[in-house]
Amino acid sequence: MHRPIEDYALIGDHQTAALVSRDGSLDWLCLPRFDSAACFAALLGDEENGHWRIAPKGAGPCTRRSYRRDSLVLDSEWDTEDGSVRITDFMPQRDRAPDVVRVVEGLKGSVTVRGTLRLRFDHGSVVPWMRETDGYRVAVAGPDSTWLRSEPPVRTWGEDFGTHSEFTVEEGEKVAFVLTWHPSHEPRPPLVDPYDSLRDSLADWRAWAGRCRYEGPHRDAVVRSLITLKALTYAPTGGIVAAPTTSLPEEIGGVRNWDYRYCWLRDATLTLGALLSAGYSEEAEAWRDWLLRAVAGNPDDLQIMYGLGGERRLPEYEVPWLTGYEGSAPVRIGNDAAHQLQLDVYGEVVDSLALARRSGLRARPHAWNLQLRLLETLREKWREPDQGLWEVRGPRRHFVHSKVMVWVAADRTVRALEEDPELRGEAARWRKLRDEVHQEVCEQGYDAERNTFTQYYGSAELDAALLLIPRVGFLPPDDPRVVGTIDAVRDELGHHGLLRRYTAEKTDVDGLPGGEGTFLVCSFWLADALHMSGRTREARELFEHLVGLSNDVGLLAEEYDPVARRQLGNFPQAFSHIGLVGTALALFGGGAGG
Prior knowledge:
By secondary structure, this protein is an alpha+beta fold. The protein contains 13 helices and 28 strands. The strands form seven sheets. It has a 15-stranded antiparallel sheet that branches. Strands 26-27-28 form a three-stranded antiparallel sheet. The radius of gyration is 25 Å and the shape is globular. The model has no long low-confidence stretch (mean pLDDT 95). One of its GO terms (molecular function) is alpha,alpha-trehalase activity. Residues 216-583 form the GH15-like domain.
């Protein structure tokens, strides 16, 4: 049986990340990058697909665990009949090669600890050749190689295509394990000292967290969300992945299983807003610069997502040897949605560039030229149906949110030209486009009888993305149509106090069978909309509820099942944590909703 998604914690080195369960098993890790093939894939299969467990012999889940203050260093502790032991897991910020460090420390008594390492390269399918040399366990398969060592050395042996160890720690004793990856054709990289690395990691994370400007309620949850966003940042380029996992299901046993180890343009504005408001201008600038590089080229070829370095080809395929999390198949690698037409991303890119200018980020001379080129393309395309922000795999439609974001692109361009006479461009041209889009949305995307905007033109279906209408300024928050939309969305998409993004199981809008859980960022959007429309008490109550859905170490997945009371979808999810930060800033920090 798979452990619940919320039983996992995240460690990472700003280039990749691993998930560690409550029972001390590292069940997911892709090396050397977030989007590389997994060498531990038990999360989506079983132990034979790769894992690394260290825990007291015969023990189950840990007694307690937590991150060390303001860091991504994880402590898990077990109380046994023979004593207590702590395992500290982290990944040092790498110099050249990625390392996973696991430090076993005796806290009380004398505890026997058992370790089992099963490396399975290429998403859990390739068993490496193992050898022992100079006290190291070396694994090699094709392009991948790892070196395992312990300090002090403990006895290891091979059995059942795994590497095993068993040793005893007394109170005050420590044993550190270091697993280092490198390309198999290169010599072994320099060794890291596990204890120096631990000290440096704590210092680096705490210095970074100390820059957070937010001082309101639930500051610990906000800082943890910001740390999570930082952990999902690919340091060499500044890109932020949506999640470090693939194919964790939106419905247990269902087919809605997607690869999120890429960078989505639609996250751009909300991410920039959260980082800037919290005091992280360097990270915001790195994300903005990644965005500019990724979308460079012909605006007709704008994609909704890109690889960590801005790669455009993200071909989607299935891996049949992985049975899926709790039988949720298929397991997918890559994402074909990269080539969908989603008009909203034009608005999100332009809105991000506008936010960057208003916030005083260092100007990029080509950014304005790019914006004008995007607007020219959008002027030709905006009347086309698209797949919308939820990346539906059904027919294209005239999604209202997509059209609203077209309006945003035109509006931000008009504002920039009005505020800065040195910018070149025809404000009247984009003002005309803005007015045309606004009129069409209000006429064709609004149901006057029900007093609500709808998911797409002519539809009776609703969409949680409609809650962003006041946030982006399309209509003021006290407009009766906005108030009516907020109430309608909450009534029709509400599920045990949270929001679905749309009623997937009742319509054919997304072209997929089955349903899904409540979408966490949508519930944060509802809190924002309630606050903007003057219902701050309700907004704060909802926010308190949402914060309470985080797991024991403060992490949120993409979705939540309020009936089964468990998290669903890829984990941890950047969008959910962006929502938490943005709503906290809006409610308690004087920021805008997000």
